[in-house]
Amino acid sequence: MKYLALYNYWIVVIIMMAGFYIMIARHNLVKKIIGLGLFQTGIFYFYVSLGKVDGGTAPIFVESLEAQATVYSNPLPHVLILTAIVVGVATMAMGLALIVRIYEKYDSIEEDEIKAIERQHWQENNGEFGISLTAPPTASS
Amino acid sequence: MTEQLVIMVLLSFLVVIAFGIILLKDLLVAVILSGIYSLTAAAIFVVMDAVDVAFTEAAVGAGVSTIFLLGALTLTRRQQKQQKHNNYFALLVVTLTGALLIYGTLDLPGYGDGQSIANQHPQLAQHFLQKSEDEIGIPNVVTSVLASYRGYDTLGETVVVFTAAIGVLSLLGLRRRKREEDPELDAKRQCRQQNEEV
Amino acid sequence: MNPLLALLPPLAAIPFILFFGERHKNLRELSIFIAGFVLLAINISIYQDYLEHQNVTSGSLNIFQGLTLELYAEPIGILFALLASFLWVVTTLYSIGYMRGHHERYQTRFYICFAVAIASVMAAAYAGNLLTLFIAYEAITLSTYPLVTHEGTEQAKRAGRIYLGLLMGGSIALLLPAIIAIWWLTGTLDFVAGGIIPADLMNPMWMTVLLALIVFGTGKAALMPFHSWLPNAMVAPTPVSALLHAVAVVKTGVFLILKVIVYIFGFNTLQQTGAASSLVTVAAITILLSSMIAMTKDNLKARLAYSTISQLAYIVLAALLANSVAVKGAGLHIITHAFGKITLFFCAGAIMVALHKKMISEFDGIGKQMPYTMAAFFIAALSIIGLPPLAGVWSKLAISEGAMVANEIWVVGVLMLSSLLNIAYLLPIPIRAFFAKSSEPNQATEIREAPLTCLMAIAITMLGCLVFFFWPGPVLGLLALVR
Amino acid sequence: MVKGLQQHHRVLQVISKLFIPLILLFAFYVQFHGDFGPGGGFQAGVIFASAFILHGLIFGEGRTRLVMPPYVLRFLMSFGVLLYAGTGLVSIMMGGNYLDHSVLSEDALHGQHWGIFAVELGVGFTVTAVMITLFYCFSSTRP
Amino acid sequence: MLSAHLPAFIIVLPLMAGPLCVISRHSFISWLIALLINIVVVFMSVAIFFQVSDEGVIRYALGGWAAPTGIEYYIDTLNATLLVLITIISLCTLVYSLPAVDREVAKHRHYLFYTGWMLCLTGLLGIVITGDAFNVFVFLEISSLSMYMLIALGSERRQALMASFRYLMMGSIGASFILIGIGFLYAATGTLNMIGLAESIPNVSDSRTVLVAFSFITLGLLIKAAVFPVYSWLPNAYQYAPTAVTAFLAGTVTKVSLYIFLRFFFQMFGSDYSFGKLLLGEVLLPLSVIGFFVMSLVAVFQTDIRRILAYSSIAQVGYIMAAMSMATHEGVAAAVVHIINHAFVKAALFVAVGCILYRLGNAQVTSMGNLIRLMPWTTSAFIVAGLSLIGVPLTAGFVSKWNLVNAAIDIGWWSIVAMVLISSLLAIVYIGKVIEAFYFQSASEEVSNGNRAIKDPPLMMLIPLWTLIIISVYIGINGSVVVDIANVAAQQLLNGFGVSLETVNTVVTGSSK
């Protein structure tokens, strides 16, 4: 019976790990971002599951329910997860913007292709890899 | 028990979607799937009594995130390249991490256990549920905690969103449209100018 | 007088050197002279102070956890400081002629680094505890690095790398852990008469390891197998080789070993545990081996470098014998060898400036072209070999005596053998110069001496060799105060 | 994508014009009813933004910019953060700790109400502005 | 009265500076706003530091809700010191950034740059000051997101984008792991407050939940601190970010992660649990030793100075980790000392490299020829800081290394002593390589062509550079400043939180609600 109660957690772990796998194994950058989303959603379930109380209701006081002795679910994980969701979407937006710029510069969103381009670039420059493309310091003012 | 069954079914559904995302090469489909995934997630959150979370997940995960992902896809490409071989190292890492996590769950209080320390902590969970009405006076405990008890976290959260906007602005910028792209828009601008002159 | 003052003149000269630069060479070098004389005066007054009060110290600066920086005058240090500051003046005199005659570049940088090195040597000489000495030691390494690589050629850069690698590497990898271990064991790094490590503190084997860490970690003492930086460093301009690599730098190394043996371990501890005896063998091997290598070298400066290694090993050996007689010999040898070797280097430099010759095989007949130089060379060589009436004899005698006291008779044999080897690699040079037929007959009769300032410097140091034979009293008197 | 919608989907345009006010209204409801039911500044902000995003998708982002110009958004998102952080500073001025809403009014409960209202409004402003800005950024970039 | 609220102001002011910069939208004005706020914050952090050393630990209840119900700040000697450290480094690099950013970032993005900077500062200070485990995560994300953005602003070179993306991926994995860990901790104890956690963990220390929480937090922090096997985000990020950002990043970001390490493992979990029961030391020690050894070796073979310094940074993190894994008072103190010293030294080095880049346009060792004469002030600053990295006496690095070696000897780890010293030798090699190039390399073509004015950078860049150098040399000469602080901090860390929730040594707590 105890393990039945943990079944939820285990599925959540599988979901998290699916996301994690996409993040580290897939070369496609957009896929990585989607994977990050899956991973984080998994964490959200985990938190929210912690706060669930059997037979409870959402932690909003309603007059009609107040009369009966109502059990409420724990609101704290919900609050934490609201914050985490926002963090997640912020990270995702940032990542996608980076991907768009990377595609502009490399014409690819596959990590291994980009690595190959970098390597080629290195070889073409005969080791002068780090030569700066920043504005040349002409007549500094 | 029905509740538990619903959750189990939905979670299993999520697993299927997650594996679909791993395997599919078409990024557009993957994005749509992740949208569905978020919507399902929102449903699960409702069943788990986390209505605020569900609301947010539906709005953000299924809504805004999907739009951003679609936007990024239109700006890049739709197909994922075929990967030549499976990444066994990644599989190993993931398996180990997952095994560690499952090992950790063994001592967790069972799902829905109202007596767990997390749900019974007198200064946190129980304090919010029992005293927030007297201390804050609003019915939605989540809002009380969010905006008052842990208002500082929410300030941080707002700053995170703000940072993301700054970051994307600095990366992509707001580029001006060229006029000829949208003649209708041009007409409107002129119209507006005329109005101002009048 | 506060020993801290001894650091000031060389440092104070730097702004002047910079200010005058290449445009006012004479003023630049004048300022160095003034600094040199002031420094000498300060050192003499510290010496006199010491004779009166025997307690000359600067305040101490606490770094952390009881680690302090402190300057403190004691006999060996005073002797060393006097020696270095006197020879600085002489060397400056010499380098005016040499650097100009040789048209060296970046003379300003040269003089600045030189001044910093001298200031560091002063700090080392008056170091009041092992940490201060270590810091000064590192400062000397760093400030002389630009001097070694002065020419900027590929060879100079390579030499610089070896120099920095062996000296700094050795000091950080071996010396520093030894210092930390001493601090950890005894809770202090102060130089205390009679030493701070009691004989029963640890197993004699560990004591030997600790001592070996210090002796080998002090790369400047050039004990084999940590010697190879010294011949390499000879790419530096000759005044550098002369003052730094025959006197100041290398002597700082042996000075550190001497101080550690006298004031950290103490004679009693070493005599009781016998921790030093195996290292004496290493020093003896170094003496003989480097003398033999010296014979194979055709480049004069390289030959002198190996000779220096051998002579430094004398001092290390004397220190390791761990008795007051031998230590007196070590102190004396610091002085006598300094005067002898610097003269030899000066001569080598003079030959380079005047005739552009570096190889001994090219020296045939140059005695007629440079009679004064070669005469001085001859005298200094005799002093190094240890023949009366020259100063070298006293120090060799004292070391032999110390060996007898320590009951290590075989060391005397080593010294004898080494003297023979000295004769074998040093004397052929003046003989060749004076008696061999020149290969360039038409120039053979023309006198082409080095610049006057060079000759003056050579004369002064050569006289030193003589003076200390007849008048070693003050030095011996000072060394007798070592407790 | 945008252009296609513009030219051929009159139906969508008409329907969205009907819907956008409703969405905005709902956003206001979520914003101000967050104390009593689910929702709050963040959710309201996203919904509010989604109305503009819908407008942008259907009528073209350029035209949305006329309605909601970027400089307004830039100000709005900054203002939201400042409002939130400023509420806390006001608490300090009134003698409480940072973000202690109960000192904002004579009565602690009223103070909490005011504080939460201001704070949620700040979140709402910022989130609305940020989401619309992000949409602009992505849609104004040309592949 | 306001002095009681300093802990709140020190976070809120830089936080509000961000939006203000956005509203101003002007490159110089936004810099000015950032600068002014930063100066104020420096003074505040110093004031807090003295408050802490005079009156003891400060606890500040945010929202007036006494912990653990609400969130609180918990400030003791360790994080008060880190506040000072971060604000000073931020100030120095911010001053430096005005001319540097002008060159490296497009004009219309300057205001975004300074906004990001202020937000990053907020994030770092927020992490350091807080006493709430979940709050750490929130502010970690603020600092990380702004860091991704700041790195990507070096995007005149496309590698910066990829570097930023990799950092984003690694950073998100790290943050997610930390989030999982905090979740497990919450499940096991029901609280999020660090003191509350410290009190509850001994009761549940046998629980597998806490074990897993511990492992995930460790993994997450290892990634964030760029410890040996999971450092891969760092070299590219350091190399391609705008130079001012690199200096700021190198001085602070990994240090803050290490701070969380100290706070969590010594104080929250308690060293008995982390090191006694779970043998964290046995795991960390090999990683850190291999880390500092291998990374020093890798640094030797790099050709770009920034890359040399980046690998050296990973090596230095290894030293700090090694010191921590001793889990003794001396070890922890040595770690704190090195955190402080290395922050100043590395920031100075990166600022110096930035100055060279500013004039020369690249940072390849091969093009450093003749710089000692052309840019004497910059190169000599680099040399002084480089010597500190090696650990030459009278520099800050020596104080660090002395403490580290001494701590190792104290528990008889002679092999560690040897490894530390050998890797110091490698430091001689990689720093020596650069110094040798300064001196002896013949001038590169661009320089000798003379069509570029290669000389010392403007004073705006030199002054912060030399401020950092002087601080590090001062620490080297008067090391007891840092060592004393570190000893107090180590004592506080090893004593646990020392105060139970009832006997709060509070400056400002919640009202009587």
Provide a descriptive summary of the structure in words.
With 141 residues, chain A is mainly alpha-helical. Chain A contains five helices and no strands. Chain A has helices at 2-25, 29-51, 63-66, 75-106, 111-124. In chain A, 57% of the residues are buried. Mean pLDDT of chain A is 80; it is low at 126-141. Chain B is mainly α. Among the domains of chain B are: 1-82, NADH-ubiquinone/plastoquinone oxidoreductase chain 6, subunit NuoJ (Four Helix Bundle (Hemerythrin (Met), subunit A), Up-down Bundle), CATH 1.20.120.1200; 151-198, no CATH class. In chain B, helix 1 (2-23) runs antiparallel to helix 2, helix 2 packs antiparallel against helix 3 and helix 6 packs across helix 7 (141-149). The N and C termini of chain B lie far apart (69 Å). Chain C is 73% helix and 3% strand. Chain C contains 20 helices and two strands. Chain C has a two-stranded antiparallel ribbon. In chain C, a hairpin with a 2-residue loop joins strand 1 (56-64) and strand 2. Chain C is globular, with a radius of gyration of 21 Å. The chains are: A mainly alpha (141), B mainly alpha (198), C mainly alpha (483), D mainly alpha (143), E mainly alpha (513). Chains B and E meet through helix 4, helix 5, helix 6 and helix 8 of B and helix 1, helix 4, helix 5, helix 6 and helix 8 of E. Chain B: This is Cation:proton antiporter.
Quick take:
Chain A is mainly alpha-helical and 141 residues long. Chain A is built from five helices and no strands.
Element layout with pairings:
The complex is a heteropentamer of chains A (141), B (198), C (483), D (143) and E (513).
Chain B: H1 2-23, H2 27-47, H3 51-75, H4 88-105, H5 117-120, H6 125-135, H7 141-149, H8 151-172, H9 183-197
Chain C: H1 8-20, H2 25-53, E1 56-64, E2 67-73, H3 75-101, H4 107-125, H5 130-148, H6 154-186, H7 204-217, H8 229-232, H9 238-265, H10 267-273, H11 277-296, H12 300-321, H13 324-355, H14 366-369, H15 371-385, H16 392-405, H17 409-426, H18 428-435, H19 452-470, H20 473-480
Antiparallel strand pairs in C: 1-2
Chain D: H1 2-8, H2 10-33, H3 41-59, H4 61-67, H5 70-93, H6 108-140
Helix pairs in contact in D: 1-3, 2-3, 3-4, 3-6, 5-6
Q: How many structural domains does the protein architecture of chain D include?
A: 1
Number of strands of chain D: 0
Largest sheet of chain D: none
Main sheet attributes: strand count, strand direction, barrel closure of chain B: none
Classify the helix fraction of chain B into a percent range.
Answer: over 70%
Number of extended strands of chain B: 0
- Based on secondary structure, the structural category of chain B is mainly alpha
Summarize model confidence as the mean pLDDT of chain D: 87
Question: Can you give the helix content of chain D as a percent range?
Answer: over 70%
Question: Which spans of chain B of ≥5 residues are poorly predicted at pLDDT below 50?
Answer: none
Which architecture of the domain at 1-82 in chain B would the CATH scheme give at its second level? Up-down Bundle
Which spans of chain D have pLDDT < 50 for at least 5 consecutive residues? 1-5
Q: If you compute it from the alpha carbons, what radius of gyration of chain D comes out, rounded to the nearest whole angstrom?
A: 18 Å
Transmembrane segments (chain E): 27-50, 81-99, 111-130, 136-155, 167-189, 209-231, 243-266, 278-301, 308-327, 339-360, 381-399, 411-432, 459-477
Family (chain E): Belongs to the CPA3 antiporters (TC 2.A.63) subunit D family.
Subcellular location (chain E): Cell membrane; Membrane
Organism (chain E): Candidatus Endobugula sertula (Bugula neritina bacterial symbiont)
